Amino acid sequence: MRYLPHTDSEIENMLKVVGTDSLNDLFSPIAEDCRRTTPLNLPEPMTEWELDRHMASLAENMGPSQKSMSFLGAGSYEHYIPASLKHLVSRSEFYTAYTPYQPEVSQGTLQAIFEYQTLASRLLGLEISNASMYDGASALAEALLMALRISKKKSTVALSTAIHPHYRQVVATYLEPMGFTIVELPWGQNGRSDLTDLPREDLAAVAVQSPNFFGCIEDLAACAQAAHSSQALFITAFTEPLAYGLVPSPGSQGADVACGEGQSLGIAQSFGGPGLGMFCSLKKYMRNLPGRLVGQTQDHLGKRGYVLTLATREQHIRREKATSNICSNHGLCATTAAMYLASVGGTGLRELARLNRDKAEYAKQEFLAKGCSLPFSAPGFNEFVIQLPRDAEEVFARCTNQGIVPGLPLGRFFSGLEDHLLICVTETKSKHDLDCLVKEVCS
Length: 443
What we know:
- The protein is of the alpha/beta class.
- It has helices at about 10-20, 25, 50-60, 85-90, 105-125, 135-150, 165-175, 220-230, 330-370, 390-400, 430-440, and strands spanning about 70, 130, 155-160, 180-185, 205-210, 235-240, 255-260, 275-280, 290-300, 305-310, 385, 405, 410, 420-425.
- A 7-stranded mixed beta sheet has the order 2-8-7-6-5-3-4, with helices on both faces. It has a 3-stranded antiparallel beta sheet with strand order 11-14-13, covered by helices on one side.
- α7 (about 165-175) links the parallel β3 (about 155-160) and β4 (about 180-185).
């Protein structure tokens, strides 16, 4: 009964209550060509231990399996998660993915979000943070919509093509049906975004990603200057926030908004989700901020309390004044990120970021020694691109057959980069792992 919770007699009693004689009668409103008419092709009954072994054997046919060594990054990163974090975040006080509709009675939830906002603002170097969003891609799209609201009469945004391709697809889905114009900015030979041909009129915002999709750290100060000279807001996106434990924060480099994916901050990859949309900006843009913002106040007795200060969505205010259709924050993921940042601390974050950078640099040098080239000269963090003497898909297929996922073939996203491979190296990889990767890719 562990896997089939209803007995035949229970099913019979439920059918009587709803007034049907059989399950077929219950499902009769569903079109016949949408219903299964034959039994499922399942093996004979197994014991629980036999079933566990069977499921494990099926999982081994997938790639990457748990036994594979993966060097994939590109927006989702494998990092060690402190054991204490898994215990704390599973406590019943925190185990909710949603902010209550009556938040004033849930002080623990609100304080956790407030602490997250504080830590996110410090990490990204900006004055305010919202309570989080769905993921990095939707956060970038909402940031551009916010810039268009602030600029009012402008209708053009500029996006670097070195931003994650999936993020750019989400932005197009948001903006193009509304009649806004998206200008694509190329990347230069060093792997950084080229902002020399920015539009000088009708430009509401400029967005770049740092580290970008190729793992290159952008010159954010120069990008901010170029954007502001065009009277546009400067938005910094990211997929790997751990980099800001080592490189200057977006806010310190002139960004008006910083947004992106916070999965690296203690959140498991979980086959691609859920993630954490981080969103910080200057305080003067608070009233245009999408989503929610938790604030600190005092009650009538002078005791500290937390309240939902801003909730600029349709359920709270008039529809025409709503800043977004974001209805909730990823409360559990935001709490996890806050616990992670508090656990590792500023010193631990710097050491962890340095470890990621150093291991990636070691792998770079080993690839160079084996005859591969590095097409981009800009400094990086824990991701980098190598150029192979053959098609990257061929190398990818050969390596995965040997239990190594060597990275991401860039020809899937960019024409002309069919022999380029994007590789990610985090603190989870040992020197032996890196040597095995280089040997397999270059063999």
